[in-house]
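haha ok so turns out i had the wrong file open the whole time. this is the CORRECT one, sorry everyone. sequence first:
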Amino acid sequence: MIDLLPPLAADSIGFASLASLCILAAWYAPAAFPLALAATSTVVALSWLHAIDLAVLAVFLVPPYVVARWSWGRPERADGKVIVAAITLQTAMFLVIKGYPGAQLLQPWNQPVAVVGISYMLFRQLQLMIDAPNMGEVRLTPYRYLTWLLAFWTLLAGPIQRYNAFVEGLAGIHRPGRDEALAAAHRTVNGFIKAFVLAPVLLGPSKISLLARPGSDWLDLAVVFYAFPFYLYLNFSGYTDMMIGIARLCGFTTLPENFNAPYLARNCQDFWGRWHMSLSGWIRDYLFTPLSLAIHRRLPAKYHALALAAAVLLTFVVVGGWHGTTGAFVVFGLMHGIGVLAVALWDGLLKKRLGRAGRKAFVEKPWVRVAAVALTFHYVAAAMMLVNNSLAEITGGLAALLRL
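then structure:
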């Protein structure tokens, strides 16, 4: 790293100190807050970067800004080849930098590169380039662009905030009232407890490789199966709570919510409306909806159902691939895509057999709700094993348990 200081993780004293400086700036010198945010975010980013990482990041940051400036407030350029080419280039750069299979062969460097937060940056950059022709009502400057991408409260793990919402948040910086400040501080502390006190307890028992130990049994499998989903929720939602709380202590109120009781979802579609909601919203608006519109416009009606099913699967393959570079993440995405398609098929079957009113009455029965939530949670938990373990580890762990 730029080895002047250790990586500033969200639970470090250094991170807390820098966040406190931003809060003080928002309270006592709001006009200076953008500078404080930029400086703090730069320090946090540099603490995570080696020199080669910084060089790669610098290259990665330039094309989207140039293209967005070229098309800013120019609706006639919305469908231009320049934007399509820039999106393709930026996505290809992301694949190379992350080292996806095949793409790593194009890396011009001979040492590991890890640009922190690059997955979140990519989606924000794509959004900016796509929306730029219709965003003339807000200003785009290099200073705002870099601060938006590197903002310390979304750099490490999101949520994915859109540029216009970021600008709106900067314009609203203020010293919150007592009740608002207490609620924000309470959320920050609760998030810290979730992410850095409770979640770590569950991380150790969540690896399926533990099943290879002598004497492992089905109870151990249950611990492995249930530990990781709750670890991931506590860690991720706790981090999000911390960042939203810190931002609100600065009077910055436009960071998007990311979780809404996801393990109470009654099906996979409902789950993605509650889990990582800033990602779900981005995927819906910038991938699935354009695909759906293209299908309805360009294909005969008799092919719509099949094409939409393929679009769902492709969408979730992208979701899985965005999370990681191995085959396990592709399977993770496919499982969720199949789950969403199963929901649509089941819903259609219920409407056909029971009618709309009968279907509504059936799904509102308490026992149906409980069964749906339990089934959805276990399906999601099974898919999440692919986030925490490779395919080889899963098959090896299960084989060891079954003594195969």
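The chain has three domains: 13-171, 178-259, 263-402.
again sry for the mixup
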